[in-house]
Amino acid sequence: MELGLDGKVALVTGGGRDVGGDIARVLAAEGARVAVNYRSSEAEAAALVDEITSAGGEAKAWKADISSYDDVKAMIDGVAAEWGSLDILVNNAGLVKYQRFVESEPQDWKPQIDVCLYGALNCSHAAARHMVRQEGGRIINIVGDSSRIGEANISIAATARGGTIALGKSMAKELGRFKVTVNTIALGLVETGHQDPEFLAKHMDRILKAYPMKRIGKPGDVSPMVAFLSSEGAGWITGQVISVNGGFSMV
Predict the structure, then answer these.
(1) β-sheet bridge partners, residue 62
(2) pTM metric for this prediction
(3) CATH for 9-243, options being 3.40.50.460, 3.40.980.20, 3.40.50.720, 3.30.2010.10
């Protein structure tokens, strides 16, 4: 199936590496112009842009702190001015601190909420204004399945991402008449550079009991769903939470 992304303009937050990097790579391969957002991983973002352009795609790195509305608005207005529109927003950037809730402190909560919830709020608000004016667009949120069913030791990130799910459902009801769809992809455990390899090796047998597929995810397992939800073929799918999680369940 042709996805119809040629000439579309996409912004991927936290797009310099891991899941975000693969999403940016796949959207570019499907013909989209891709803005790769980063906050601190400048080298990774630049390398990804070079990779995409060397393969014949079009991409540009954009530095912005998504927890700052001013930063976000400047970035999104800049992307739209540079390429003439903003058709796809992928709210991918996140921040998780693993700790027991009773051992956490308020200063542990704010950074996660700022990135995971306010980041999605800021980007969605700024992007939606462009999409409403152009009467079309796709907003795709990436969250962990913990925000859907709960999980110990990541209560704050799960709470923030749970808010992102509610945001997506509510925005879908508001924006549908403008041909803007809003959906959320809920992930199981995906192998990225953020995990402690020693922890994974030690606990992998226990972790895999929760996965019928008997493996954890890879970034390449996520990107095809993002590409599909970005496409014309997904024009009647909105307000949904779609789990890409290898059948994950709590055990």
Answers:
(1) 37
(2) 0.93
(3) 3.40.50.720
